[in-house]
Amino acid sequence: MKLSFIFAHPDDESLSAGGTIAKYASSGHQVSTLCLSSDKVRKNEYFNAVKVLGIQNFEIYDFDDVLTHENEIKEKLIQYILRTKPEVIITHLEDDYHIDHRSTYKIVREGVEWAAHETQNENPHLVSKLYTSETTVLIPNPHTLVDISKYYSKKEEAIKCYKSQLYKGGEDFYIRFHKYRTLMRGTQASTQYAEAYLQIPLKRNSPFYKQKHSEL
Fold first, then answer.
1. What angle do CA 7, 180, 15 make, to 5 degrees?
2. In angstroms, what CA-CA distances link 15 with 18, 173, 202?
3. Among 5, 22, 70, 148, which one is least packed by beta carbons within 10 Å?
């Protein structure tokens, strides 16, 4: 399976889905990460973090923020989807507190649709599943809980790569918040640690899609 984890800032991938990334990467799936904005310091931290998670295929854009550059990023993202052809994409929540996270959701949702348009692309690609994940905003009723018990240590190690961010929220806030969040999700999943996701329905019947039907 080909999975792509697409987030706004360096550290979002580790905070939101670090355990899941490490789990699927170690299980032989084709896992890639894409970060839509960066700065010099966090870019290097991102390179270190994704390597901790076991990712070989990772990209990061040089935009200073997501919201200001929505149209440019969307065009790049469409080409990214056409080139990498992920079956599953994981990104931010639609109603996340951070405006760049909400913008990323919008870009990803539209990018998934446009990449599948046969009138726009010689070789269109329709993503099979789209999920959104928790960063610091919690999902009230998750659709999917992924057991990351064997990979939580990798998640925490990756978070610690972001030394420039660890001061935010007070001492050890990120470490403690995400540890206890994944413990709570683990309790819900009858395991030790877990990460939570919402599945976003994707329409299949656009007149511009090559394949206009699907199974239930």
1. 15
2. 6, 12, 25
3. 70
Backbone region of residue 4 per phi and psi (left: phi > 0; alpha: psi in -120 to 50; beta: other values)? beta
Domains in the chain and their CATH numbers?
A: 2-200 (3.40.50.10320)
**pLDDT tens digits, 1-58:** 999 999 999 999 999 999 999 999 999 999 999 999 999 999 999 999 999 999 999 9
Helix (H/G/I), strand (E/B), else coil: 76 = helix
Q: Is the pLDDT of residue 212 over 80?
A: no
Instruction: Please list the alpha-helical segments (H only) found in the chain.
Output: 12-26, 40-52, 70-84, 99-115, 152-160, 173-188
Q: Percentage of residues in the chain with pLDDT exceeding 70?
A: 97
Alpha-carbon distance values, 29 to 2, 63, 202 (Å): 6, 29, 22
